[in-house]
Specification:
Layout (H helix, E strand, L loop, with lengths): L1 E4 L1 H4 L2 H12 L4 E5 H12 L3 H17 L4 E2 L3 H4 L10 H9 L4 E3 L8 H5 L4 E3 L1 H11 L1 H19 L5 H7 L3 H10 L3
Parallel strand pairs: 1-2, 1-4, 2-3, 4-5
Helix pairs in contact: 2-9, 3-4, 8-9, 8-11, 10-11
């Protein structure tokens, strides 16, 4: 499965680490554009100099890990596409250009399923996608979640629990399933 990942999924750290960890585990192939990465860079910069530096470093790591994920702009394609927010058309253009199966976003309002379907693209939200991936491939998803939890604990110095961490990361369904499965 090929999925274009929208900026709103890449920028929050825990969500990004879950999504990309599952991609790293071979569940799907991620794609993005330079513009998506630039939107991430600008969002990180709003957190101040430290956020800007961290965003740059994370983007560099992303590029190194998935050199084939970066898709060039498709301006000719963009001109024939429509979405409610013209600023999001570039994401759909990348999906069409990459022959992606879906766009992963939390922005349902600006990516109506009917308009995406006209281009043969589905919309998936990260929580539902990851929950379904866990149901189909628990041996691939659960270790990613545990690694993200371990990293969150180490970096924050807090004793995060799976359900609370993933709920905070806007992945409540996955967090609940993992916590219930592990008995807590």
């Amino acid at each position: 499965m090929k999925i274009v990942i929208d900026t709103c999924v890449l920028f929050p750290t825990v969500m990004r680490e879950m999504v990309l960890g599952v991609a790293r585990a071979g569940v799907f192939t991620p794609f993005w554009s330079e513009r998506i990465l630039e939107e991430w860079r600008r969002a990180a910069a709003r957190l101040g100099p430290e956020g800007a530096a961290q965003g740059e470093a994370e983007i560099a790591l992303l590029r190194a890990a998935w050199p084939m994920a970066l898709r060039p702009a498709a301006p000719g394609l963009e001109s024939r596409l429509y979405l409610p927010d013209a600023a999001d058309i570039h994401v759909l253009a990348v999906a069409v250009d990459a022959s992606a199966d879906a766009i992963m976003t939390v922005n349902a309002k600006d990516f109506p399923r009917n308009l995406l379907a006209e281009e043969g693209v589905a919309r998936v939200d990260p929580d539902t996608f990851l929950f379904q991936a866990w149901q189909a491939n628990p041996d691939r998803v659960a270790p990613v979640a545990q690694s993200v939890l371990d990293t969150a604990r180490r970096l924050s110095g807090e004793d995060w629990q799976m359900r609370a961490l993933l709920k905070k990361a806007r992945l409540p369904r996955l967090g609940r399933a993992l916590a219930d499965h592990d008995g807590g």
